[in-house]
Amino acid sequence: MIRRSFLAALAFAVALPGAVMAQAPLKVVATTGMIADAVRQVGGDQVEVKGLMGPGVDPHAYRQTRTDIVAMTRADLVLWHGLYLEAQMEDFFHDLARKQTVVAVADGINKARLRAHDDYADKYDPHVWMSPVLWRDVVLEVQDALTEARPEAADIFAANTQAFLAEIDALAAYGARILTAVPENNRILVTAHDAFGYFGAEYGYDVLGVQGISTQSEAGLNRIGELVGTLVDQQLKAVFVESSVSDRSMRALIEGAAAEGHDVGVGGELYSDAMGEPGTYEGTYIGMLDHNITVIAGALGADVPARGMNGKLSAGF
């Protein structure tokens, strides 16, 4: 009787068009929080995601721990960013790829759309998540990787991807509307390192980082002096600290401007290489960019919604 019931249930499931048999979720390990969020959005209940780099973690300097190695060797799929973001881990990923499915999800972006790296002639700026338009391409790469790993769930992944891309498009439109409300002479973004180049290109802002594209590059006294001069000459009132980078260099800028008789304040803390705390709105890709867009626009002179695009930001403006 038990055997007949099992066979009947199996036959019913097979007969259902496009039915996905109940399976354990795919075990996916992602390096950055932004990639982990994309996997959750696209994969839904078909995935179990572990992100290696949490809030405040700098991916430029991150090295895999023993716990990370165990998680990745046991995963069904490992997704990393690429474009030399996780520079300290590249050799490990290439070795791991000989045994498991490992995908660098940003490496598929057309190189003609990327910014050159300021320290390496053959590398590119990896901070593509700062552009919602470019991040769409990464989300599609995530969809492809999940579909290849579990083809029977392709329709689920496709539907989830389209829903997420619609949210990203709404975010891009919000950014265009709010950031163009900033007076043109104020559209200069001064940050700890050069993580906002794609953001500036997309929204028409000059971006000046104390450090280069990598947080491992040195911030020399000459660079500090140049930026102090810009703050004074342009009469800029705000600079921005980053959640994953020390604020030491930004304090040096503020003190340098004060010595020249010009008052500069901190416009807010931005999420550059890592998202906010898990379980918060800012701990999602949409929330991270909503926060950045709203903080930047508000600090530089635009009227902004009190709690951002979706009314979900933790702090009001």
Note down, in words, how this protein is organized.
With about 325 residues, the protein is of the alpha/beta class. It has 2 domains: about 25-105 and about 115-175, Nitrogenase molybdenum iron protein domain (Rossmann fold, 3-Layer(aba) Sandwich); about 180-300, Rossmann fold (3-Layer(aba) Sandwich). It contains 10 helices and 8 strands. The protein has helices at about 1-15, 35-45, 65-75, 90-95, 130-150, 155-180, 195-205, 220-235, 250-260, 285-300, and strands at about 25-30, 45-50, 75-80, 100-105, 190-195, 205-210, 240, 265-270. The strands form 3 sheets. Strands 2-1-3-4 form a 4-stranded parallel β-sheet, with helices on both faces. Strands 5-6 form a two-stranded parallel ribbon. Helix 7 (about 195-205) links the parallel strand 5 and strand 6 (about 205-210). It is globular and about 65 Å long. The N and C termini lie far apart (about 65 Å). Mean pLDDT is about 90; it is low at about 1-20.
Write a brief caption for the model.
By secondary structure, this protein is of the alpha/beta class. It is 42% helix and 13% strand.
CATH architecture heading of the largest domain:
3-Layer(aba) Sandwich
Strand content: 5-15%
CATH class type of the largest domain: Alpha Beta
CATH topology of the largest domain: Rossmann fold
| Mean of all residue-level pLDDT scores | 89
Biggest β-sheet description = 4 strands, parallel
CATH homology-level superfamily of the largest domain: Nitrogenase molybdenum iron protein domain
Quaternary state of this entry equals: single chain
Q: How many DSSP E strands?
A: 8
Would you identify the regions where 5 or more consecutive residues have pLDDT less than 50?
A: 1-19
Tell me the radius of gyration.
Answer: 22 Å
SSE ordering: HEHEHEHEHHEHEHEHEH
Q: Helical segment tally?
A: 10
Shape: globular
Strand order of the biggest β-sheet: 2-1-3-4
Proportion in helices: 40-55%
By secondary-structure content and strand pairing, the structural class works out as: alpha/beta
End-to-end C-alpha gap: 66 Å
- Counted up, domains total 2
